[in-house]
Inverse folding.
């Protein structure tokens, strides 16, 4: 029983880290955008992390809710659109 709890905690920790990395990248991008600074590096970091998380979620390697996936994809599309301008 305790082993299952430990394994579950490890899995949750991994998911939390993946989502936290994506969130931090998005926040860095938005902060630079507010200050009208060069945002290319932060945008690329977010895109890379978001694509990896989405890919893992779609393969079933990262159990995210449909809403979490939708929100990440929505932010990804917005940033990609701004980068292409």
């Amino acid at each position: 029983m305790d082993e299952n709890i430990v394994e579950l905690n490890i899995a949750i920790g991994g998911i939390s880290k993946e989502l936290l990395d994506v969130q931090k990248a998005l926040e860095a991008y938005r902060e630079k955008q507010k200050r009208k600074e060069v945002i290319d590096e932060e945008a690329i970091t977010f895109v890379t992390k978001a694509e990896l998380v989405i890919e893992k979620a779609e393969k079933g390697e990262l159990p995210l809710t449909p809403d979490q996936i939708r929100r990440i994809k929505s932010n990804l599309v917005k940033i990609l659109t701004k980068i292409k301008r």
User: Anything to note?
Assistant: The radius of gyration is 15 Å. Residues 2-83 form one domain.
